[in-house]
Design goal:
Length: about 140
């Protein structure tokens, strides 16, 4: 009984395909699913030629931190501008304040000289790396 039943099902199935109208299946045209283009980084890294500030925005004997560019620009003496990485050499926190002649890290209280980036206190052992800047007229830019 079972065999006969299976046979008739097979006959029916074969009969369906016997109409002579078989065509090749359409090739699937799936859209390209490549990875999307890379997104720009959330915070743009410092790029050469980028204007940072006007000289008047940097206090004499102090400095200004540019978080987006991760740069701190100081003016140890009137007309003398310096720039350092704003990334603490201890554990890579961003420095947060410039006061009393030092660039200060909020994480573990390391302090760096505004004149040469050297360690003035705290757990950091290496100075802040100097960054190249150009001062053209009253505009300070990354070199
Ligand atoms: S990360 Fe700056 S003092 Fe530790």
């Amino acid at each position: 009984m079972l065999l006969a039943g299976a046979g008739s099902v097979a006959a029916l199935a074969t009969g369906c395909g016997d109409d002579g109208q078989e065509t090749a299946p359409e090739p699937e045209t799936a859209p390209e699913l490549g990875s999307p283009p890379p997104e720009p980084p959330a915070s743009a890294p410092a790029s050469p030629g980028q204007t940072l500030a006007k000289t008047s925005e940097i206090p004499v004997g102090g400095g200004t931190i540019f978080e987006e560019q991760k740069v701190v620009v100081t003016q140890p003496e009137a007309g003398q501008f310096k720039a350092f990485s704003a990334v603490c050499t201890h554990q890579a926190c961003l420095v947060s304040r410039v006061a009393d002649g030092t660039i200060n890290c909020p994480c573990h209280a390391s302090r760096f000289s505004i004149t040469d980036g050297s360690v003035a206190g705290g757990p950091a052992r290496r100075p802040l790396p100097e960054e190249e800047i150009t001062v053209s007229g009253d505009v300070i830019s990354l070199a």
